[in-house]
Write a structure and sequence with these properties.
single chain, 281 residues, Partitioning defective 3 B, Pdz3 Domain, 5 helices, PDZ_sf, elongated, PDZ, 12 strands, phosphatidylinositol binding
């Protein structure tokens, strides 16, 4: 509550005129609420100064939106607007990083360097396939994507990739966890004002350590689309000469974000050729 502000509105004043998209944590990939991407001119929100771009709605009438699907969050909002008084908890942009860290705290389950689990991992969140990863701002265009974890199907007769991935272009590539039969490519990206311009995704961590990290999407702006070589589905092996095997998605994002504007990031990626896809796929 110290990080958010309370906005009270009337449900009877007509449309708010705001455009919202899912607010995914860049640290954990969890859905934390609704991100206000735009406010219409001459709208009630603009006129009354109710909201500002890049703010995030995290609670509606004291209902926490954490881990809700986008459709559920929209429905909660619609139902709330039927009442005369609506109370919203709104997260300002300058508190977003702190809020994301507070949201990931319950997920931290390692208490030593060997990676021995102290408590059970909470159940994974399965977003609907239609949801897309939305970069939270133009300047920081590398956000951790949400990916439905690939779990082994219960029936041994079914293929191992029993779940559809939320990014169809990745589904054949999420199946390869090793570096064999993959072509290594060195890509240098110079970070400009629009950032590096891609999102990353990983499989669930296991007791053996974090899973491989893949490029999920190439954003329409940024260094990656200008360079043209990085592709969705590429597995990231090295960043600036450092092997990222065993590193978490959060560590990789931190390494990439620490690159200053004008500096160059050297990536080594593995790209799986279709001819070498595992037989089960």
């Amino acid at each position: 509550s110290e990080m958010t502000k309370t906005v009270e509105i009337s449900g009877e004043g007509g449309p708010l005129g705001i455009h919202v998209v899912p607010f995914f944590s860049s640290l954990s990939g969890r859905m934390l609420g609704l991100f206000i991407r735009g406010i219409e001119e001459n709208s009630r929100s603009r006129r009354d100064g109710l909201f500002h771009e890049n703010e995030c709605i995290v609670k509606i009438n004291h209902v926490d939106l954490t881990d809700k699907t986008f459709a559920q969050a929209q429905d909660i909002f619609r139902q709330a607007m039927k009442f005369q008084s609506v109370t919203l908890e709104v997260l300002p942009p300058y508190n977003r990083e702190q809020y994301e860290k507070s949201a990931i705290a319950p997920l931290c389950f390692l208490d030593n360097e060997e990676g021995v689990p102290k408590t059970k991992i909470p159940p994974p969140v399965h977003p609907k396939p239609a949801l897309k990863t939305i970069p939270l701002s133009g300047a920081s265009s590398l956000e951790a994507g949400v990916q439905a974890p690939l779990q082994q199907a219960k029936s041994p007769n079914l293929p191992r990739l029993g779940r559809k991935s939320s990014s169809p272009s990745l589904s054949p590539l999420m199946g390869f966890g090793n570096k064999k039969n993959a072509k290594k490519i060195k890509i240098d990206l110079k970070k400009g004002p629009e950032g590096l311009g891609f999102t990353v995704v990983t499989r669930d961590s296991s007791v053996h350590g974090p899973g491989p990290i893949f490029v999920k999407n190439i954003l329409p702006k940024g260094a990656a689309v200008k360079d043209g070589r990085l592709q969705s589905g590429d597995r990231i092996l090295e960043v600036n000469g450092r092997d990222i095997t065993g590193r978490t998605q959060e560590e990789l994002v931190a390494m990439l974000r620490s690159t200053k504007q004008g500096e160059t990031v050297c990536l080594i990626v593995a790209r799986q050729e279709e001819a070498f896809l595992p037989r089960e796929l």
